[in-house]
Design brief:
CATH superfamily: SPOUT methyltransferase, trefoil knot domain
Largest sheet: 5 strands, parallel
Mean pLDDT: 95
Number of helices: 5
Shape: globular
Low-confidence stretches: none
Oligomer: single chain
CATH topology: Alpha/beta knot
Distance between the termini: 27 Å
Order of helices and strands: EHEHEHEHEH
Number of strands: 5
Strand order of the largest sheet: 2-1-4-3-5
């Protein structure tokens, strides 16, 4: 199974980018992993929030492949503790999925079309984080889940 983190807009902070790449490298020790970036929309001042979400939806939906298991990182999704997330990942890995796609939307979230395409939604917290931070926090959680599943001494509970 391949895991993809699909994000709208590049990571602009070089410190976050370096940390994200470090965790991506660590994840690749366990399974195929990549970060795909959908270009951020340009000239959005004349667009409403809904119009921006729809334009982003066009780009996201083109990226999804048949057979993808799409998981939105969304504030209304299910929250997991790290051990629970590891168990969830283990079940997905055992299910024989071709590609598990975790998706981070733009600043206004996802359009109804993207919600309709998704299989699940996960929330990292009831708090709000910047999109830059979400990427880093989430790749660390994927890495943490892998260390839990491999009984390695990274996670302490």
């Amino acid at each position: 199974m391949r895991i993809t983190l699909l994000v709208v807009g590049k990571t602009t902070d070089p410190h976050f980018a370096a940390c994200i790449e470090e965790y991506a490298r660590r994840i690749r020790h366990y399974l195929p992993f990549d970060v795909e970036v959908i270009p951020e929309l340009r000239n959005t001042k004349s667009l409403s929030e809904e119009q921006q979400k729809e334009k982003e939806a066009d780009l996201l939906l083109k990226t999804f492949q048949p057979g993808d298991h799409i998981v939105l990182l969304d504030e209304h999704g299910r929250e997991y503790r790290s051990m629970e997330f590891a168990t969830w990942m283990e079940k997905k890995m055992a299910a024989g999925l071709k590609r598990l796609v975790f998706t981070v939307g733009g600043p206004y979230g996802f359009s109804p079309r993207v919600h309709a395409a998704a299989s699940e939604k996960i929330s990292l917290s009831r708090m709000t984080f910047s999109h830059q931070m979400v990427r880093l926090i989430f790749v660390e959680q994927i890495y943490r889940a892998q260390t839990i599943l491999h009984h390695e001494p990274y996670h302490h509970e």
